[in-house]
Structure formats: structure tokens, C-alpha cells
């Protein structure tokens, strides 16, 4: 008798910061019209069959059987079916996390991936969650939660479509920490890459998430803080323009003057003269 035993190292795993809040199944037919909408949570759509278009904000993407559509929280979206081959899909609503796709050529707020080569595996998990929520037998919520984590880990292990997940609460904290860092260190040599290293997330996800919370990218915010500091120095000191440029973090006097004029409509020297006349 042959016997093979594999021991697990017992290291445990990092917790997936996700909570499954619903599972639904839909078939898009002529009696239903979907309008653009947003949610405060992420959604995963797995297309069982059919074809159509998925609309995310102002972009339209064709979708077909075995496409997985991942949409981050607070992103406007909807779907449109082809009447001759209606879309049929399962949707998971997942709160507490966002997806970091970390891809400069792709979107920051959604991803569409075809998983035809993993169809049997993914459909098993999606259909099992759907069946559990329909039957509501004892401990079905725990089973669904565990299946969700299996799905997310399976997707994250796919080397051809790598991504990571970030807790929504952590994203808020990370952006707040980066903002505070900029406020205190704006005179230093700061780049988007260095900020992303401090945040331990990709620079593309950081830029998108920071802009969602504060209305501008981290680098635009950095420039705003530097210009605000330079205005104060122009108004209250006799430092030269080059000294002010250096002390507020601008790489050169010419870049400082360029940025200042573009934002304020005046050169630094003209601004100083105007402020002293007031």
C-alpha cells in the first residue's frame, strides 16, 4: 500500500479583509433595464454565459462567458446585454476591501479578466455560495465567507493577472498617514514612488485612492503644500527666490517660478511685491 502524507508548516495566513454581504444570480433579459449606480463595497461579477457590455464610468467594455468583472467601491457601473445571447452571471458583494491591480496600463478602479481555463473551479465556488445562500442551512454564512476567501486567494495566485487586496479602513488610514507625511516633510525630495514605498501599496493604487479621499493626487497635493509654504515665505521674509524654492522642496528656481505662475497667475517676485503693498 502506498501512502503519501503532506504536512502543513502551521504558519497560518494573513486574514483577507473582506466580508461577503450578498450573492445574487441574474439573467439579463428584455424585461429589465439596469441604470448606472455605485456601491460603498466592491462587486465581483462572474459571467456564466452570454455576452454584452459592461459600463464603468465613461468607458464601455465587451464581456462574454467566463469573464470576471471586479469593480472597486464607489465606482459608477452597469451592464448591458446582447438580446440574442443574454448575459447570465453571479455577483458577489464584498465590503471592507478594495482591489489594488498595480498595473500602469490598466484601470485603477476595475478589472475584467477571462478565466475560461479556471471555469470549473470558479463556477464551483460561485455556485456553491449561491446554493448556500438560497438554502440557508445551518452555518451557511461561515461556509460562504470561507468560500469567498478561497476565491480571492485563488485569484491572487494567478501569475498572469496579479493583484492584491487592501482593507478599506486601512486605505483611509494609509492616505491620512501619507497626507500627514507630506505636510511635515514637503521640503524633502519626495516622489510618488517614495510615497508608495512608505504606504506599502502600488503607486497607481495610492494615487487613485488618495485622489478619491482628497480630490487630488498625492503629487498635486505636495505641490499645493509647497506653494502654500512659499507664499508665506514670500510674504513674511526677505529670502531670495532661489532660497525659497530650495527651502520648500522645488527642484529648481525655474520650476518653482513656473509652478507658481501657473497656479497663482503671478511670478513669485510679483506676488511678493503685491503682498507688501497690501
Write a structural description.
With 278 residues, the protein is of the alpha+beta class. It folds into three domains: 19-162, Regulatory protein AraC (Jelly Rolls, Sandwich), CATH 2.60.120; 167-220; 227-277, Homeodomain-like (Arc Repressor Mutant, subunit A). It is 43% helix and 22% strand. The chain has helices at residues 119-135, 140-156, 168-185, 192-199, 203-214, 218-236, 241-247, 253-264, 268-277, and strands spanning 19-27, 42-49, 51-56, 59-64, 67-71, 77-81, 88-95, 97-100, 110-114, 164-167. β3 and β4 form a beta hairpin. α1 runs antiparallel to α2. The radius of gyration is 25 Å and the shape is elongated. The model has no long low-confidence stretch (mean pLDDT 86). GO terms for molecular function: DNA-binding transcription factor activity; sequence-specific DNA binding. It holds the Pfam family HTH_18. This is AraC family transcriptional regulator. Residues 176-274 form the HTH araC/xylS-type domain.
Concise summary:
The chain has helices at residues 119-135, 140-156, 168-185, 192-199, 203-214, 218-236, 241-247, 253-264, 268-277, and strands at residues 19-27, 42-49, 51-56, 59-64, 67-71, 77-81, 88-95, 97-100, 110-114, 164-167. The chain has 278 residues and is an alpha+beta fold.
Amino acid at each position: 500500500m502506498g501512502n503519501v502524507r503532506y504536512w502543513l508548516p502551521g504558519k497560518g495566513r494573513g486574514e483577507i479583509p473582506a466580508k461577503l454581504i450578498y450573492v445574487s444570480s441574474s439573467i439579463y433579459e428584455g424585461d429589465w433595464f439596469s441604470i448606472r449606480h455605485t456601491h460603498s463595497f466592491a462587486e465581483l461579477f462572474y459571467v456564466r454565459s452570454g455576452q454584452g457590455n459592461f459600463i464603468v464610468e465613461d468607458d464601455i467594455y465587451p464581456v462574454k462567458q467566463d469573464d470576471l468583472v471586479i469593480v472597486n467601491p464607489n465606482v459608477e457601473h452597469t451592464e448591458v446585454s446582447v438580446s440574442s445571447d443574454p448575459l447570465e452571471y453571479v455577483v458577489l458583494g464584498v465590503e471592507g476591501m478594495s482591489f489594488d491591480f498595480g498595473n500602469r496600463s490598466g484601470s485603477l478602479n476595475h478589472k475584467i479578466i477571462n478565466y475560461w481555463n479556471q471555469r470549473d473551479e470558479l463556477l464551483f465556488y460561485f455556485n456553491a455560495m449561491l446554493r448556500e445562500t438560497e438554502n440557508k442551512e445551518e452555518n451557511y454564512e461561515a461556509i460562504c465567507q470561507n468560500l469567498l476567501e478561497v476565491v480571492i486567494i485563488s485569484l491572487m495566485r494567478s501569475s498572469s493577472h496579479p493583484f492584491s487586496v487592501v482593507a478599506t479602513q486601512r486605505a483611509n488610514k494609509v492616505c491620512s498617514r501619507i497626507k500627514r507625511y507630506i505636510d511635515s516633510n514637503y521640503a524633502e525630495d519626495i516622489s510618488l514612488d517614495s510615497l508608495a514605498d512608505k504606504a506599502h501599496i502600488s503607486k497607481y493604487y495610492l494615487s487613485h485612492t488618495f485622489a478619491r479621499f482628497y480630490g487630488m493626487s498625492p503629487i498635486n497635493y505636495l505641490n499645493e503644500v509647497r506653494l502654500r509654504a512659499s507664499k508665506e515665505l514670500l510674504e513674511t521674509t526677505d529670502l531670495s527666490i532661489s532660497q525659497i524654492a530650495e527651502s520648500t522642496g522645488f527642484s529648481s528656481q525655474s520650476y518653482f517660478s513656473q509652478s507658481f505662475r501657473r497656479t497663482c497667475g503671478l511670478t513669485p517676485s510679483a506676488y511678493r511685491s503685491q503682498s507688501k503693498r497690501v
